[in-house]
Amino acid sequence: MTPSNNLFASIDMGTNSFKMLIIQTDKTGKFLTIDRHKDPVCLGRGFSSSISKESLFRAVTCLKRFNQVLKANKIPPQQAICVATATVREASNVFDFKRSVLESIGFEVSVLSGEEEARFVYLGVLQFLPVFDKRVLVIDIGGGSTEFVIGERGNVVLGVSLKLGHVGLTQKFGKDWNLMEMREFVKLVIKESELAEKVKDLGGFEVVVGTSGTVRAIERAVFNGYGKEFVEGNEVLLRDCKREWKFSRGELSGVVERVCREGEEERVKRDGFFKRRSEFIVAGSVLLEEIFEAVGIEEMEVSEYALGEGVIAETLSKVFEGYDLNANARWHSAVRLATRFSGKKGIKSAAQCSSIAKEIFEGLRKWGEVAGNQINVFLDVKDLECLEAACLLHNIGLITGKKGYHKQSYHIIMVSSLRFS
């Protein structure tokens, strides 16, 4: 397959939400998520053994909207990959579901096994964090299942999928939480899987990475001191620059204790902070705490990239010969910083700016190579990399407001110790 442009898309049909990512990339490994779309389809709501007609209707309606976005971005079908996870693979009417999606929208749905899902999550992490050379345990908590993968240098050493998800646990134990029963159930499933023993037999791990929305919500709660007053203004900026995007076992326990508090006042606080995720955050945080205990985790790093990005990384390895999963560590560093301080619109605008700058750069370089042209400048790949990174980061200071934002952009880059030397 020869790509018609440098945009690829992935659609992740999860138990709770459908997510679509649009990635701008090329064969050099410059991998950037420029647009995200998410719809709380709740495919697993009320799920017993089959996907209901109501859920199918919500799914098809969502996918039609996603398809309109793909067409608007001129992304051809062969550069858009649609995958489904726990609820679809467990459904007795999976083939009917796939046929309905194909006939209604034209999407070929690839239903991932738990092990395949775990591998794609690991590949996504490699596009965001510099952990290629480390033995990393990646944990992704979904609505219907939780995936565990140990990877090293791009290879999966262990992949395990457990039927433990925040939606499933919420439905099983209801909203009148019996936390003791839920904890015992989680412990039993983990014990029967022999997950801890499998990890130990392989020699353990060097670093643990969490990728799911549940993990990101918990990290945000830890950082902001959930239950306390928020810090505002430039103080947030200064703290954010030093934010490590990780949390310890003790910090996780503090969040779990707060989200499990009873009473109307606590519920209002929880809803206000976690928004739509509030319905499932109790189950998700308790599940993560039990995983920490069972596997012996003391600290977890957080990745913004996960399954969707991993699906595209796999596709790129087939499209571009010799595509390197570990390429451009410096570029990944710039992407992490831009992702932290720019919203969806900011990233998309920066990516467009980068594309225009690249065209001008290439044109200038070619013109300078023509004999007789009066230009005395040598431009190499490293110069282009710096230019594209500058396009990506020049507006991040807008987080503090428009006045003097360019100075704030410089300040954030310097405090964050980002280097392109």
Structure description:
- This protein is α/β, with parallel strands linked by helices.
- Helices cover 51% and strands 15% of the residues.
- The chain contains 17 helices and eleven strands.
- The chain has helices at residues 53-72, 86-90, 94-105, 114-126, 166-173, 179-193, 195-201, 213-224, 234-241, 249-259, 264-274, 278-295, 307-319, 329-341, 344-369, 381-393, 405-415; strands at 7-13, 18-24, 32-39, 80-84, 109-111, 136-141, 146-152, 155-162, 207-210, 246-248, 299-302.
- It has a six-stranded mixed sheet with strand order 8-7-6-9-11-10, with helices on both faces. A five-stranded mixed sheet has the order 3-2-1-4-5, with helices on both faces.
- α6 packs across α12 and α8 (213-224) crosses α10 (249-259).
- The longest helix has 26 residues, at 344-369.
- 40% of the residues are buried.
- The model is unreliable at 229-238 (pLDDT under 50).
Topology record:
Elements: E1 7-13, E2 18-24, E3 32-39, H1 53-72, E4 80-84, H2 86-90, H3 94-105, E5 109-111, H4 114-126, E6 136-141, E7 146-152, E8 155-162, H5 166-173, H6 179-193, H7 195-201, E9 207-210, H8 213-224, H9 234-241, E10 246-248, H10 249-259, H11 264-274, H12 278-295, E11 299-302, H13 307-319, H14 329-341, H15 344-369, H16 381-393, H17 405-415
Parallel strand pairs: 1-4, 4-5, 6-9, 9-11
Antiparallel strand pairs: 1-2, 2-3, 6-7, 7-8, 10-11
Helix pairs in contact: 1-3, 4-13, 5-12, 6-12, 8-10, 8-12, 10-12, 14-16, 15-16
